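Sequence only, no structure available. Ideas?
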Amino acid sequence: MTKSGRHFRYSVFWNCGLILTGTFIQAIGFKALGEPQGFVPGGLFGVATLIHYTTDTLNSGFYYLLLNIPMFVLGYIYLTRRFLSYSFLAMLSLSLFFMLVDFRIHLDNQLYAAVSFGVIIGAGAGMVLRSLGSNGGMDVAAIILNQKFNIGIGKFFFFFNAVLFSCSFAFLDNDLVIASMIAMFITANTVDYCLALFSQRKLALIISEQPEKIADQVMQHLKIGATFLPGMGAYHRQKRTVLMVVINNIQLKRLEEIVFTHDPHAMFIVENTFSVLGSTFSRRKIY
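Reply:
I predicted one. Tokens follow.
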């Protein structure tokens, strides 16, 4: 990635664009599909939805706005202003978009609706999490608990949603709650896919008799860096140089061609990585 490209990804314009687009997609899922079906989302919006279903007053977007007030008070104390500002934009835009969306997605099959709901919400949430902020709500509480008490974010959401859906069984139809849980499982996987779609890289380890020549070709033709690692063969106890290259999926085949053009007997090992931070790659998100 070029230097200008990296700066653009950390610009206010890019991050606000991701947040507004992602929250608009989520609002469509919540209002046009989730609410007509009676689904209960996970997280703080799920609490707001459950309150709306049981009291039949105001709407979920307004309750979500109110429930976020104590979250952002805590966030103001413990989290960075940049992260909190972007998260506040996400919370506010989700609430407003939810109030403005005024159409329905008609699906008669509850399972189809749950799958579609999960994909839409997951895609929108994943876009927001690609920014330097979060979706607000319980994301803020989860990060604070993780930093202060080392409580895993995933574990926190698991137990919070477990309590939420347990309470939902007391007020809603069992089939509806089960469908909501299916939707949330799909949401979680869709979010993971969206995050990995742009962050995932391939880690290539190359054992060859020509590591210097391969490294030169990689830097010259692929315009990426490489690292030499010291190694030793277990059988002959002969010292070797292992070449490590972090690369994206598109360039992987070109790397393979460079390696075996210079050394047909090379060993080419490729591993998936979920995220690569630092150097010329993405910078970590600071909470």
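The longest helix spans residues 12-37.
Hope that gets you unstuck.
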